[in-house]
Amino acid sequence: MTQLGLLARILATGFSVVNLAHATGLADIDHVVLFMQENRAFDHYFGTMAGVRGFNDANLQTNDGVPVWKQLTTTDLTNETTYVTPWYLNYLGGNWSEATQCMIAGSNGWYQNHAAWNHGTNDHWAMNNTPWSIGFYKRKDLPTQWALVDNWIVADMYQGDGFNCYPLKWKTAAEYYEDAGVSWQVFQDADNFDDNAFSWFQQFQDAKKGTSLHERGIKGLPLNTFYEQAANGTLPEVSYIIGPAQLSEHAPYSPHDGAWLENKIAEAVIKSPKYSKTVLIISFDETGGWFDHVDPYRSPDRTPGEWLDDPYGQVTELWKISTA
């Protein structure tokens, strides 16, 4: 498989992470690398994985005794059944494993996601989004992503968040780092696909050239500099990785292409002389219209101070690569 990156090939041949230098605890961590990709749900990528909150969820939600897997349909969709269940995108075989790499799901809009969520029953994805939303991949379709998750730590209850009050104005983590004397840096190439969230903040928009917020947060350094600093053991204490659109995994950009960048970043960290003092966190910003069966955290209706505009979204992925 050409999409199987060097890291995944090494792991597939029996390489064990126990052969690497290990930290003894979080106090040993000196470097944090944050790398966020785009628009994939947990079940969509890892639903068939053992030991996670996927298709074998031991605490599966039921609605009046009906498992949440049964997504309701309408006669506009089909006259042959009243529900559909999650289905393997490449069940037809042939070249479908390549074709579905570029497919899209339904809408990731506020209305469609809330209509699919259906006041907590979470059973209207086929009706109010699309039957494509509940399609999923398997290990063989995502060898690099699965190699990373299998050999390190995955969070199966990590949720997306939404913002709609631009420009954002609260004090960012990077500004707290500045106050505390913690070094930080954005690494990005020319096309950041609007994934540099610092550009959404008023104070970064107003920052003049030459200031720390502009140079470290808006302008940033190229990804090649990240690879060089990782190899030299000279990364800042906090690094933000922002990839180009084509490698973001945002449909219709393919998981295979995004895996190439995940592989590059992970290899840079693992091969760094500071690996035992570094943690890499790979996450996804939102589900992209893909289905996850877990009901998101939320406040009960009519709770004082309830999140109305920016509640947590559906479950997406996060995994951690570290010896700690």
TrEMBL record:
Superkingdom of origin: Eukaryota
Signal sequence range: 1-23
Keywords: Hydrolase, Signal
Pfam family, any one: Phosphoesterase
Listed transmembrane segments: none
Chain segments annotated as coiled-coil in the UniProt record: none
Gene Ontology terms, MF aspect: phosphoric ester hydrolase activity
Protein name per the record: Phosphoesterase family domain-containing protein
Species: Hirsutella rhossiliensis
Taxonomic lineage of the native organism: Eukaryota, Fungi, Dikarya, Ascomycota, Pezizomycotina
